[in-house]
Design goal:
With about 350 residues, the protein is α+β, with helices and mostly antiparallel strands. The protein is built from nine helices and 21 strands. It folds into two domains: about 5-230, Rossmann fold; about 240-355, Nucleic acid-binding proteins (OB fold (Dihydrolipoamide Acetyltransferase, E2P)). The strands form four sheets. Strands 6-7-8-3-9-10 form a six-stranded mixed beta sheet, sandwiched between helices. It has a six-stranded antiparallel beta sheet with strand order 13-12-11-14-20-21. Helix 2 (about 95-105) packs across helix 3 (about 110-120), helix 2 packs parallel to helix 4 (about 135-150) and helix 3 packs across helix 4. It is elongated and about 75 Å long. The structure holds adenosine-5'-triphosphate. The site of adenosine-5'-triphosphate has 11 residues, from helix 1. Adenosine-5'-triphosphate binds near residues 13, 44 and 194.
Length: about 350
């Protein structure tokens, strides 16, 4: 496995627009990364620059200390898994999994051991002798995944939305298995997805992309708890983070007409000096409260939506629309009520960027 470094990398497919803005990025040896973002943000371009399928218009790609910018894909010693199955229909499942190892001249015992191990991880052990042609689309994609995971001597494994064609039930199971396999083998994996659940459940570190640049990278916990921008806060989470504009009032700051107690002095100062500050708070962190709760703010419940395992409740606070996520067993008030915004769960954003409001 290798660490991967992209030095001042950028890409334009033609014309002036950057599909990937100039950036320095690195991926540590043995960790699993997810590139997450909406369609067109540059995830595949970045992955393809690492694999060599796209030659970056600017910058250098290094695997450890070796400059591979001019090295062709087939000589970069990487495994790739794509959205759709890339397998030999006429070969058995076993032979499909063994093929990348035979090409590398692994000995027979090592081939058998690796194929058996990967087949077990993916639940393919009972189908090793079947012809690949006879399998379902899901099973064929499992073989593609297996072919990506089977070599233990690659510089990196690059996966581009590999679970897209997989049945939703199996997808859940496979996320767990991919994570397990990576934790066990400590391979360098870069995984492209637009599905935040997939990214957050598989990766050690997630890189959130927007319009050709990485806007934040961090562990799933950090991205959830401390989104660096309102874009990341809204993009991560289901539903995304609530944001409400703050304004000055004589006794401090307010959401519209509703005074917001317990705000840090730096936030009160910024709002007071006319800067664009908004409050960010996760729907999971808002709590319905009794009127007597010190610091609770008045709210009006407008609607509730059943998500299966939880409810999302639409409330208005001082003219701002917020969402509250509550567990199924919890009672949901109707009409006028009170809401508790735990101060330690609040984040403040100045011009869309997280403030240090400590
Ligand atoms: P998706 O999830 O839809 O694949 P993505 O995040 O992977 O999106 P890219 O496919 O990397 O994004 O595309 C980034 C930008 O580059 C987009 O504006 C896209 O239209 C453009 N683009 C991608 N491939 C090409 C190409 N071969 N020629 C010209 N423009 C391209």
């Amino acid at each position: 496995m290798a660490s991967i470094h992209l030095d001042r990398i950028a890409h334009q497919y033609g014309g002036d627009a950057y599909a990937l803005m100039p950036s320095d990025l690195h991926f540590e040896d043995g960790k699993t990364y997810a590139l997450l973002g909406p369609s067109g943000c540059g995830k595949t371009t970045l992955l393809n620059i690492i694999s060599g399928l796209v030659r970056a218009s600017e910058g250098v790609v290094r695997f450890d200390d070796t400059d591979v910018s001019q090295v062709r894909t087939e000589h970069r010693n990487i495994a790739q898994v794509f959205q759709f199955p890339a397998i030999y229909q006429s070969k058995s499942v076993y032979e499909n999994l063994a093929f990348p190892l035979r090409c590398r001249r692994y000995d027979a015992a090592r081939i058998r051991a690796r194929v058996t191990e990967v087949a077990e991880i993916l639940g393919l052990q009972g189908r090793l002798n079947r012809s690949a042609r006879s399998l379902t689309a899901d099973e064929k994609q499992l073989i593609s995944l297996g072919r990506g995971l089977v070599r233990d001597d690659v510089a990196a494994i690059l996966m581009d939305e590999p679970l897209t064609v997989i049945d939703p039930q199996l997808k859940f199971e496979l996320r767990r298995k991919i994570k397990q396999a990576n934790q066990h083998a400590r391979q360098t994996v870069i995984y492209v997805t637009h599905d935040q659940n997939e990214a957050m459940s598989i990766a050690d570190e997630v890189l959130v992309m927007d319009r050709g640049r990485v806007v934040q990278r961090g562990t799933p916990d950090v991205l959830f708890e401390f989104p660096a921008t309102t874009y990341v806060g809204y993009f991560i989470g289901s539903p995304g983070m609530n944001f409400a504009a703050l304004g000055p009032i004589p006794q401090g700051i307010a959401i519209g007409s509703c005074p917001l107690p317990d705000a840090p002095a730096s936030v009160v100062d910024a709002v007071g000096s006319g800067q664009a500050v908004s409050l960010g708070i996760r729907p999971e962190h808002l709590q319905f409260a009794a009127r007597s709760t010190v610091g609770a703010v008045p709210a009006t419940v407008q609607a509730q939506h059943d998500l299966g395992r939880a409810y999302v409740v639409d409330v208005m606070v001082g003219g701002a629309a917020l969402k509250v996520k509550v567990a199924r067993r919890q009672a949901i008030p109707t009409g006028d009520t009170w809401l508790w915004l735990p101060p330690e769960r609040r984040r403040y954003y100045l011009d869309g960027c997280l403030m240090d409001a400590g």
